[in-house]
Design goal:
- With about 140 residues, the protein is an alpha/beta fold.
- The chain has a single domain, classed as Dna Topoisomerase Vi A Subunit, Chain: A, domain 2.
- It is built from 6 helices and 4 strands.
- It has helices spanning about 1-25, 35-40, 60-70, 80-95, 105-115, 125-135; strands at about 30, 50, 75, 100-105.
- Strands 2-1-3-4 form a 4-stranded parallel sheet, sandwiched between helices.
- α1 (about 1-25) runs antiparallel to α6 (about 125-135).
- The longest helix has 23 residues, at about 1-25.
- The chain is elongated and about 50 Å long.
């Protein structure tokens, strides 16, 4: 079992590294709230992370804001609960309509790895730490 856990942690770390690379290339990461953004920063992701639910903006207003910033591509990392999945779909449609490229590939990859165990991005750092604690030290 510890081998499977190690592999799982490695795969999650690879996705986090990909997110970090996207951010370092100047792509904007979009999350739901401040705690989600803080979670990404705690995982070592640096760059522009915008929150959709902070400031009471609608998806339309948020899309306009991204357009005004000249954002050409975003990485969506909204939560995995029902509302987060619906928001991802709706925001993706709005952004694509505004000619902003949307990357949901990393969101899907991460979801495949964490399944139902993690519902929100803000829980990701503690989830990774919990997995590490489950691996017997040799």
């Amino acid at each position: 079992m510890s081998t499977r856990l190690k592999e799982k942690i490695e795969k999650i770390s690879e996705v986090v590294t990909k997110i970090s690379e996207e951010a370092s290339e100047g792509k904007t990461i979009v999350v739901e709230g401040r705690k989600d953004a803080q979670a990404l920063y705690s995982l070592g992701i640096e760059g522009k992370v915008l929150t959709i639910k902070t400031g009471g903006k609608s998806f339309f207003e948020f899309t306009q804001q991204l357009e005004s910033f000249g954002v050409g591509e975003v990485v969506l990392l909204l939560d995995y609960d029902r509302r987060g999945k619906e928001a991802t779909k709706k925001l993706q449609q709005n952004l694509e309509h505004a000619k902003v490229r949307v990357n949901t590939k990393l969101w899907r990859e991460l979801h495949c790895l964490i399944g139902r165990e993690v519902q929100c991005i803000e829980s990701l750092p503690s989830y990774i730490e919990t997995l590490k604690l489950k691996i017997p030290q040799s």
